[in-house]
Amino acid sequence: MKISAIIENNYTISTTFDEAKKRGWIVGIGDNQLLKFIRDIKCIDFDKQIDKLEQLYKYRDSLKAQPKNYENSQLILDYQKQINNILYIPDIISVQADTIKSDYLNVCNNKFTVNNITYKRLCAGAGQLRRNTVLFINEILYDQLMEIMLCGLNTKRIGKINLAKFSAYHSLYSSSTNTISTPRVCVVKDLEIILPKQKIDWIYETENKERNIEEKIIDVKQNVWDGSGLVSLEMADKWNEDLGIEDYTPSAYIVRSAWIKGLCIRFDWKRFATEVAHKDYIIDAWGNKKDINNIDVVLTTSQFKMWKKYNDWEEYIEYHTKYNHVWGCSRINKKEDDFLTPLNYQYIQSNSFTPESIKKLANFSVEWIKKVASGKRIYVLLYLLGSYHDKSIEEIEKETGMNIVKALMYNDKILDDPYVRQKIYKSLEKKITQLKIGKLLVEGSYEFAITDPYMMCEYIFGLAPKGLLQAEQVWNRRWVDKGSKEIAIMRSPLVSPNENNVLSVHTDQKCEEWFSEIKSGVVLNAWDTSLMRASDGDMDGDLLLSTDNEYILTAVNRCLNPITYEKTIVKEQSLTYKNLSKMDTKSFNAKIGFITNLATSFIGLREQYEPNTDEYKELTKRINLLRFHQGSAIDAGKGNVFIPPPKVWSKKLKIDYKTDEPEVIKHKRFINRLTGNKKLYFMCHIYPSLMKEYKSHKETYKRICRAMFGCRFDELLKKGKYTDKEKKFIRNYYRYLPVKVNKSIMNQLAWYIEDIDFDLKFFKKEKEFDYTILMDSTYKVNSDSKIYKKILNVLKKYHRIYELNVHEKRNMIETFDYYEEDEDDQELSFLCNEIENELLALCSNKLELADYMISIAYNELKNKSKSILWNVCGEQVVENLKRKSEKGYYPIETTPDDCDSYEYLGKYYKLQEENIFDNI
User: Fold this and answer.
1) Which of the residues 546, 667, 763, 828 has the least number of beta carbons within 10 Å of its own beta carbon?
2) Rounded to two decimals, what is the model's pTM?
3) How far is CA 41 from CA 141, 266, 561, 868, in A?
4) Which residues contact 306 (CB under 8 A, 6 or more apart)?
5) Which helix H or strand E contains 185, and what residues bound it?
6) Is residue 346 within 8 Å of 437, Cβ to Cβ?
7) Cβ–Cβ under 8 Å, residues 229 and 265
8) Which of 123, 141, 171 is the last residue of a domain?
9) pLDDT tens, position by position, 121-131
10) Residues pairing with 327 in the sheet
């Protein structure tokens, strides 16, 4: 709910569940510990709720399969209302600050009511604050909830603290988690080591409060396992059972509990204790000796955020048990890391690509799109579905979300459907647009950053911490198995070329032996500044992109130093409701995107100048200083004050030719030449409003050119000699052009992709389509019947609403530069739920309803989108196709020498045929 809506309604809102859904006030969230605490306070039996939900869904869906009648329709609606009542949680509201900061503070201080429930601020994490959102709770629950969430602490015991960090710790309860077994824990102090005599680019503050940068040799202090710990093999196996994982063994788990956050690496540290350390105990952070037989997880103090506030772990666990806290897992590594992953423009523009090498990098993705554009069934299925191993078609169908893809598995005639063709065409168009903005596929994946766990074992058992990796070395299962010698490492957001890194892939017998459980993860050494280079990343679940792509490895400038600066210490404050509310406002409206765009402008500008020029050197300095300003924007969510870049970097200075001295004018011209007030041309493909503005400017000058000079504008540009009038005209064209059209590498990539004919005519041309293949045909659809006309009227009504929503969304995209557009989003899902409920009140049998909707969609509403049909009745359409088919098809990986194989994205596949045994 937005602050503006709360204020417009004078802090008192009355609404129904259905009205709230239509206004976008109902959002879906995953279960989390905060919701568990609310259930505990209200004595709600969650297991009974789940059982009840399963029963209601079962009863509702069984009625949809029965012959239609009025009683069944009413029962379906009643069951749906009961489902909504169970799922809807009125006690918690996510509030978005969409107006001025003082409005938010007024709402916090005055509180507000919705349907007679009064709400007050509860918590907000850094990620929420970057989106200007804060969680509010039913005031009646506030005191009890705060007592539980503080887990035995209180404001007096906590004392003064960094409020942003406290808020981040406090909000951990609201992150979606799956409950896992509570382990026996030993907390150890973090290890900070000194890396002597590191050559770095040091950002410092000058006497006039500006930032500058200089090369410096310093000793770097580094927290080796910041946010990371170890989990025993036995406990990891237990967690896998809790999470229902049977087909693979995760290497790392992001865990949550009271004041606990971070990554736990699966590692056989108990074997290390026996075979290497010859010890059966660990000294914990409070100086107590802990028997390893009573430990499942080793946490570092950077993971246990409030460890200094407790006398020992035993006191903490007493409160943990008293308040019924649990452990949760919010994320694990996937079963298989992506074989290919898309880059982004930050990774491309910050490296030294040539026009030739960027084309070679792009061609792999270009050929991919061309193959899918051919319309061949196997390529379309690989594009939409991917490939599977050792799974039946029924299992694949269950794992696949898109009903159109399921339909294609059973009948390739679905590719003749104009709606399906348009859907795939739009998807391919979007992929082509993404190529223009740098989302080129390379072999590689995003994986958890991990620092040498063998070295951690040495440390916790009192041995000299050396580890298995030396400086500039990295270990990763994929690249070791492939035999790669080097890999590039990158992390977003990335603004400076200095943040790219290349490390040597290392392995030996000990690495193979001790890292065998780490099937996924980039294992870094502790002896270099790799994490500093990666925007000061840490180990609590940060993801690193690694790739051995030859063009990227060649493009990275390996001579650049890592960049760093002195981190500011945030003033600690008393823990009060008022102070926390004020702290929220300091973190609103993060400028991370602005900083990244400014870096893009500077990098593009720099490519106009030779490296030995003052302009090139100044732009290089600015790009590197943006590393500081980007860090400042990110740290604003941690309580720091955001320090913006100088205004002259993004706004030109005014030159007064009458009063300014010649030297001043010269200086201002220099500064103005380097102003990043324009985005590069390629960003027109990110911001639709910018593309609209660019095209309008271009068309205007084309018309003026014909009127003034009697030729086309492109002919004028090619002319050898210009008159003064022509010179001024061309100069003004570029001066007022809303984007930079210089030959920066990202502009060149965009133009290269624009010039490629992807041959999408297969999906553009119309084909005859027999829509009756989608129907069950058991039921007679009578177009003259009352029910037909009633269903038609409902669909007409909702198609108008749907089209208004689509139109409004397009306007938002053009007006506010919101890029991602997806028809099947949450708003459409809510709308289709409304449509389904209204239609089931008319026809309670889902199969019969589907036949009516198909007939109406292709006869009465033939020019309308079929999104509503596929969202409401997609499952029935798939079942209809399945019943009519004898076989199903899906891609499987094969070998190049298989005569039925097709090459796709560097691998070979064929269509696997499978009989549908229950076909009747």
Assistant:
1) 667
2) 0.89
3) 8, 35, 54, 40
4) 153, 158, 169, 259
5) strand 185-188
6) no
7) yes
8) 171
9) 998 887 787 78
10) 180
